[in-house]
Specification:
heterodimer; A: about 260 residues; alpha+beta; 2 domains; four-stranded antiparallel beta sheet; three-stranded antiparallel beta sheet; about 30% strand; B: about 230 residues; alpha/beta; Rossmann fold; five-stranded parallel beta sheet
Chain lengths: ~260, ~230
Amino acid sequence: MNEEKEYIYFADKILNGVSGRWKRKWNYEPLEVRVYLATPLVLNHPWIHIDGVLSHLSLRKALGEDYYLLPAKYPISKLTKNLQLPTFPIRFAGAIPQASISFFDDVKPRSEVVYKKLEDRWLGIVKKLYHGSGYFKDYAMKHIYLPTPKVKFYVVGDKDGLKEILSELVTLGDNSRLGWGYVRNVEIIEIEEDKSIIYEGKAMRPIPVRFCKSWSDSFLLAWRPPYWSTDMVEECVPPGAEVELLPETIEKMKI
Amino acid sequence: MNRRWRETFLMWTESDEYKSRVAEAISIIKQAFGKYQKPYCSFSGGKDSLVMTHIVTSLKPDVDVITLDYSRTFVPLRYLIEIKEIAKKLSWNHQVIRSKILESSPNDGLPVMLQVLNYEVTPYLLKKGFDVVFVGLRKEESKWRELRIRNNKRLTKLPEVYPIAEFSWMDIWAYIISQELPYLSIYDKYGNIMGWENVRFSTLFDRELDAFGNSNIDGFFSYRYRFPKK
């Protein structure tokens, strides 16, 4: 399939998959999403983005089995950039998703090593397989391991819409195929105050500096889903840094 | 580093193993000084080359200390500044060599490393008249390094000397703590979680080290350096 046909195929699939959301009317309110875990969490980044998790789950739902055939040559944002998509159960303050990063209980991270090794002695072959490189290469993978029972996120969103999408959430974090980060239960609680973008003068998620009046720290970070794509990298105020937003950004945050 | 670890390492300096290894390193260096005219120390900024260079400079203070700059894609500017500060604090004859190949390379250090050493660094050093290099490799680090040291398999045309080849991780930290040497801040950051035996200073987000899962760890600790500012 050439690139143009591929683009049309996946764009159609996405549009059909999310068409049900056009009729939906969202009731946006400040919420706290609590994800209870059954197994410890492994991370390769200090935080998780709930909007990233939600867009991943929605895309997987929209594409079905075709999700696993997505082109690897270019990021998915190249497909979705020009599409007219319906609104999301998470509110956007202008361009910034009103969803905070993950917050964990006070746990101390540790390092764990997982070994991937092919035991060729059980294969019944005489020829010795080379493990130094190539297909059968051995790996000693170090992980950052957080034995947290609960992960908290703060969002401005629609409770039912979030519940619907998050019902399909099975795992959180890195290397879930090894059994890390299994989700036991998801709880969504209404809260009074909006803590999604900024709280007590501190950033709750990466905020591009072009939306800010003043900030205490900044570096290059992805700030919109898909967070793994370098297209989304911009100079941002990192979570935890002191920040003052521009008046127009504050205006857009109001529900 | 916490007090308990400091005390442990200081106690290790009293051991016979430690004393014999330091004495052996000194004798290797003295032999090399007798054999070669113009040696230099290869100082990456890490703990092993710090110890090696300190032993060499304590015997011959005017020896040249050279650091290869791995470019901003692999080593953040903050750490390069720290390396320069360590060398300045210890009054070394320090010099940083920049590599055009590494500076233009995307995040993939392994295939270009030999190219950098053989086509950029070594010709420059030979032109300067250096005839031997002190390298801070240790046998304990990996099987490949042990074989490289045992077979004296050098990477470039310059002969290599490995004074601290027999050192263990305990010896390295014991030397640093007992001599009160300044070391890179990255060790304190990673050491508490990864263990002082596993902690390393190397290139960050490097595909060369993916087999050891190091980009996972860098993604957690050094996330602010994932996308370097050009």
